[in-house]
Amino acid sequence: MNSVVMRTSDRCERNAAARRLRDSDSAPAPARLRKIIHVDMDAFFASVEQRDNPELRGKPVAVGGSRERGVVAAASYEARQFGVRSAMPSILAKLKCPDLVFVKPRFEISKAISQHMRAIFAEYTPLIEPLSLDEAYLDVTDNLKNMTVAREIAEDIRAKIRAATDLTASAGVSYNKFLAKLASDHRKADGLFVITPRMGPGFVETLPVRKFHGVGPATAAKMNRLGIATGLDLKERSLAFLQHQFGKSGSYYYSIARGIDERSVRADRVRKSVGAENTFFTDLFTFDSAREALQPLLEKVWRHCESAGTRGRTVTLKVKYADFQQITRSRTGDAPIVPRADLERQSLDLLAHVFPVEKGVRLLGVSLSSLEARNTGKKPQSSFAL
Q1: Domain housing 68
Q2: Sheet with 273-284, edge to edge strand ranges
Q3: Looking at the domain assignment, is residue 101 inside a domain?
Q4: Which residue is catalytic, options 49, 78, 129, 135?
Q5: Which positions of the chain have pLDDT values less than 70?
Q6: Domain-embedded: residue 133
Q7: Tell me, what CATH number does 62's domain have?
């Protein structure tokens, strides 16, 4: 299944952390282990609609799109049981789930709920790194309540979120960001899971690589072709082998296979660009097929800009061919791109200059950069800034 992947500054940070990794089977333990919590709301946008409309509760719900066109922005757990996922074309989602109910997104409501979450997080720590409106890392090693057990902090946060919003959140607790993210996914929905330093390496070994944050469907498929199906398989490969097969990301994969992640929780992180890309299992050869494939990416980028209240002046198209040659084409305007139709028009114009092609297209991506807060002309701050 194709998958849309958001591109953020995490990738650069991930590569920087990997470069610091020594070529050994294990790294020396830091003098003081960190306590990291990853909080992730459960089916956030769809759950908001089910909360506010009792008739939708227990039913398969898709936020965004329509019966005939568009893409799914978010899906309820009831819809996910039928295979409906975000960024899926609406027509395909309807085929998978004939009883699927489509509702329009209400970003202002979601942003207001996110503000409740921000206030709750800030009661415990100033070290909050948002990933989206409904997801964040917290470093509670030194916290404002002087609590010594991170699990108890996570339990408090989940309880307060439920009380304030009538929604559920899952949380993962561990000694680094990679493992905290795995932990929050492990007990969804409405769950809490802790990965201790003693558990970490063994926990990673048992998981399929497709569950690793930072390993997308195309990379997981390539790993499987190389005989790498689990964390243990990945751990058995040398650093040189992984770097040869996956370039700079190889060092990151070598690291996480050992439960090592040196990235810090960055409270001051500012997103400078937002983008989406998709690797196709079947190469594209025509402009029409590429134009259709670009639509979910445009929807994902624009949805983020709407939810974050940002606009960008530079649109960039990324194309990777079947032989892995990669090109980018960009265009920068004097003013932020508004409305969505302008983003689509400029992206398709860039795409048109790529065709006709002599070799198939295996990946397309689109991004917006030079981001500004909408109507202010100022650079955007973290979406969880207080």
Answers
A1: 44-105
A2: 4-7, 273-284, 361-369, 314-321, 326-332
A3: yes
A4: 135
A5: 1-31, 65-70, 268-271, 374-386
A6: no
A7: 3.40.1170.60
